[in-house]
Design a protein that fits this description.
The structure is a homodimer.
Chain A (H helix, E strand, L loop, with lengths): L1 E5 L8 H14 L2 E6 L1 H8 L7 E4 L10 H7 L4 H10 L5 E4 L3 H12 L9 E3 L1 E2 L6 E4 L9 H17 L7 E5 L10 H15 L4 E6 L1 H4 L6 E3 L2 H26 L3 H21 L7 E4 L5 E3 L6 H17 L1 H8 L15
Parallel strand pairs in A: 1-2, 1-4, 2-3, 4-12, 7-10, 8-9, 8-10
Antiparallel strand pairs in A: 5-11, 6-7, 11-12
Chain lengths: 341, 341
């Protein structure tokens, strides 16, 4: 198992990718390829240079570049080189903490989607319930067709079953109420497709779910378009931040409170960590023909380690083969959204 | 100032509406009309029956009824009678904790929208920032046109300025990123309208905002369609519940933790209360030609009191007149969404 790590991606590159990858090699027994500026990687590695393979790529895609032109023009960027290596079989998965848009574009253009999958989705696992909850899509596709959402549901279901450890994963459609009739036209049409897939035994469709349910642990896969998914994810982040700030206010309110808070500090720190979306690992790009994991831009070494572990599990899981084997059931006709691409 | 209170609406009716209304009469100096089953209201009032006016309405709309047929068929329900009284000038505002759908339908059919307003919106004020943040629409309209969102932005801006106490209220469009180009087609077209309204000095449009920003206090009015708004609101509720449960886990983890938590209990209770969406008061139905306030279904007496206070402030504010005077600027042509009505 060889994981290709974009050593230049993220706010803490190359330190975090290099350290995280080294730890993964040691603890998980995976081979590592670090792709990026050779001198910087070597400086970071110091006397550990012999432990990993380095593939030089002297260019870099920055966060503010237009994804399509960056991927097209920066052929020698660490991200593009990493994806090309994956595409040509020189590794089993890619991990990058670089630009989300560029990684998604690069994965689509270079590694390509699974044949028959209309769009790749960003699918993070949120900290809720026993196994976490997969939110698919969380931002890759602002405009979706019912067929895209059907495909997201089926891919998410495979992932939840094989990687998250959910038995018969419960798939919910995010809507503005739980009644079958809730939602806008996209939801109405998607509901019919998911219900049919459920009736055919392809997924365990539990119906419409509200934003509250996503965090109550009552579903394993929450299906939505990338616009709504992004709003949902960012709202959750915003509320967590807001509450943590309010809590801090309580803890610093008086000397007695400060003392009480000091007692709780360790356990609260662990709780805070458990709420951190980044702690669950990276975000899988589902629908791409090989495993690509997006680590958070602010990843530290342990987040990169978690993302590499996730890439390994993903590559071993066989879910891409499952999706390929079942792709015939995920299609409804010609691509309605193809003009939007 | 006379506030009409639906005495039969909500989980705790008639106790909560009766007690909340009596408190409002005493503390705010408003006249109260209680509408509902006379014998039940009188039983609740006891020897205080002389303090308020009672208008009998022996029927009731329940939470699970279809809103349109309930409003059409239950002419003698407390909610319909209350709205008819408001419409005919027998009071200045209506407060109800009954079915949201029925109240919205009833307000639209009986009290009617402000002439020129395409759709009424549910606009709660969320606990964030100095003055709170108005989320408009949070669920009344799953399908919206750009013009609806323009109207929501302008109505929300008037409300934030006159009722929430925001000077030059900052209006943001909820999107999947802050760049001007973010969003789906509805957002792209709405962005242009809001930008033009901003350039013309009619609103203070600050651009696209993410879910995180809604809770960071960086906007006063967050504009979105009712589908997305509902997901946002319910996600916030779900995350708050999830964190409170996690906190409880920390507090009960050990005897030392229990003791420390006991010290913090009072301040944490206040914090929890400050996070409660219901504590800010009721949700205004903006776009209706007279003030209608939806109190939460689980309202207790103090929530009803807060909703009556909000109704009073709303009725005194003159924002309905402001909207009427400016309606010409909120129109873009024939109603694109009229087929959906």
């Amino acid at each position: 198992m060889k994981i290709i790590v974009d050593a230049m991606g993220g706010d803490n590159a190359p330190q975090a990718p290099v350290e995280g990858a080294l730890r993964a090699k040691k603890e998980l027994g995976v081979d590592i390829v670090l792709v990026g500026k050779e001198s910087e990687i070597r400086r970071e590695l110091g006397d550990r240079a012999g432990e990993v393979e380095i593939v030089p790529a002297e260019d870099m895609i920055t966060m503010d570049e237009d994804p399509v032109s960056a991927v097209r023009n920066k052929k020698n960027s660490s991200m593009v080189v990493a994806l090309r290596m994956l595409s040509s079989g020189e590794g089993d998965a890619v991990v990058s903490a670089g630009s989300t848009g560029a990684l998604l574009t690069g994965a689509t253009l270079i590694v390509k989607r699974i044949n028959g999958i209309r769009r790749a989705a960003m699918a993070p696992v949120l900290p809720a319930g026993e196994h976490g909850v997969m939110l698919i899509d969380c931002g890759a596709n602002a405009e979706c067709t019912p067929e895209y959402l059907l495909q997201f549901a089926c891919m998410g279901s495979f992932y939840a079953g094989k990687i998250m450890g959910c038995e018969n994963p419960r798939v919910g459609l995010v809507s503005n109420g739980t009644e079958d009739s809730k939602g806008d036209e996209l939801r109405h049409r998607t509901f019919e497709l998911l219900k049919a897939a459920g009736d055919a035994g392809r997924i365990n469709f539990v119906g419409n779910v509200e934003g509250t349910t996503v965090f109550s642990g009552a579903v394993d896969v929450a299906v939505t378009d990338g616009f709504t998914g992004n709003v949902l994810l960012k709202t959750a982040e915003g509320v967590i931040k807001f509450i943590m700030k309010s809590l801090k206010g309580v803890f610093y309110k008086s000397t007695v409170n400060k003392l009480a808070a000091a007692v709780l500090k360790k356990d609260l720190g662990e709780m805070k960590k458990s709420l951190d979306v980044n702690e669950v690992g990276g975000t899988a790009l589902l629908g791409i023909s090989k495993p690509v994991i997006k680590a958070h831009g602010s990843s530290d070494a342990s987040s990169i380690f978690a993302a590499v572990r996730q890439a390994k599990v993903f590559a071993e899981s066989g879910i891409i083969e499952d999706i390929k084997a079942n792709i015939g059931f995920f299609r409804t006709g010609p691509d309605e959204g193809s003009k939007a691409e």
